[in-house]
Amino acid sequence: MHQERFDDIRARFAEDIASAASESDVLDIKGRYTGKKRGILQELMASLKEVAPEERPAFGQAVNALKSELEQGVDEALARVRDAKRAPAGLDVTLPGLRPDLGHLHPITRVRREIEQIFISMGYAVATGPEVEDAYHNFEALNTPADHPSRDIQDTFYITPDVLLRTQTSPVQIRTMEARRPPIKIIAPGRVFRRDDDVSHSPMFFQVEGLVVDRGITMAHLKGTLTHFYGALFHRDVEVRFRPSFFPFTEPSAETDLTCVICGGSGCAVCKRTGWLEIGGCGMVDPAVFGFVGIDPEAYTGFAFGLGIDRIAMLKYGIDHIRHLYDNDVRFLEQF
Ligand code: DAH
């Protein structure tokens, strides 16, 4: 009769302890069965008085034996849940792993590096200059006198009347020619700043400047260089067209148009049905600029060009608003 009660407790304990998943589960069960206050074994012991006097010693011994049995079960269960915490027993090594988020290059960085590689393959060096520039290098030595409209505070972020955020990468032309004698063959990629903000303008954007100075450099070299460059960049045959223009530091100057890389020249929304894309400025280095850096314009000629990396990235990746490039929205960035 008593045996049944013992077996019943044993079976319930075995079930409870098997389903314990954590240390606190186990300690809970331990309290319920062997706890000094109202534990199941405590209550069993309390029923001793209902047991026939001659059976009491055996009953007492059986309770004690059950107690050490349950305590052993608790110890084993504790060892099990502590082990599980260290190396989850339910680990299924055949499940696909968690893929960590990997960073990757920004579209502007990718395009900049591609541009650099193309020019490096043509023997150019990559030059840099300060983003906080002085008015002499950004304007004066580029033959842009104090009364020139681009020097207006409407266009330029001034820090002091003489110090500003460079509005173009062209000052790197001056810094390069101050530091080195021809032959010079450089590009200068970098950030530039202007007080401008709309669908295709951001107050900070990226340009690449190019400068070649040597004996006998002509506008034909300029056009051939740009044609090769754009073909390599967009992976297709392109034509480059020069439209007469004006820049203070080049003479003659030209606006560069490129066969529309979207429609191939037949006319589309991106090229406004013209078949051409306006893609940058260029020209022959103005002799006045050579004057500022002490290069003899009778002995040397040079060409220069400037283009926007943002515009190229937008064309290459079909991005319709320059802001996407600078919002750093991962849903956008992840697509590259
Ligand atoms: N610096 C000019 C701009 O920001 C672009 C440019 C035009 C650069 C003609 C040149 C050049 O080197 O020859 O609008």
Structural features:
12 helices, 336 residues, binds 3,4-dihydroxyphenylalanine, rod-shaped, alpha+beta, 2 domains, BirA Bifunctional Protein, domain 2, seven-stranded mixed sheet, 40% helix
Kindly describe this structure.
The mean pLDDT is 92. With 336 residues, the chain is of the alpha+beta class. 40% of the residues lie in helices and 20% in strands. The strands form two sheets. The chain has a seven-stranded mixed β-sheet with strand order 1-5-6-10-9-8-7, sandwiched between helices. It has a three-stranded antiparallel β-sheet with strand order 2-4-3. A hairpin with a 2-residue loop joins strand 3 and strand 4 (163-165). It folds into two domains: 2-86; 107-333, BirA Bifunctional Protein, domain 2 (2-Layer Sandwich), CATH 3.30.930. Residues 168, 170, 209, 247, 250, 281-283, 304-306 line the site of 3,4-dihydroxyphenylalanine.
Average pLDDT, rounded to a whole number, is: 92
Q: State the shape.
A: rod-shaped
**What structural category arises from helix and sheet content?**
alpha+beta
The string of secondary-structure elements, in order, is HHHHHEEHEEHEEHEEEHEHHH
- Straight-line N-to-C gap: 77 Å
What's the arrangement of secondary structure elements?
Layout: H1 2-19, H2 23-34, H3 40-46, H4 56-86, H5 107-121, E1 125-126, E2 132-134, H6 135-138, E3 158-160, E4 163-165, H7 171-179, E5 184-193, E6 204-214, H8 219-234, E7 240-247, E8 250-259, E9 276-285, H9 287-293, E10 301-308, H10 309-317, H11 324-327, H12 330-333
Parallel strand pairs: 1-5
Antiparallel strand pairs: 2-4, 3-4, 5-6, 6-10, 7-8, 8-9, 9-10
Helix pairs in contact: 1-4, 2-4, 5-10
The structure holds 3,4-dihydroxyphenylalanine.
3,4-dihydroxyphenylalanine is lined by residues 168, 170, 209, 247, 250, 281-283, 304-306.
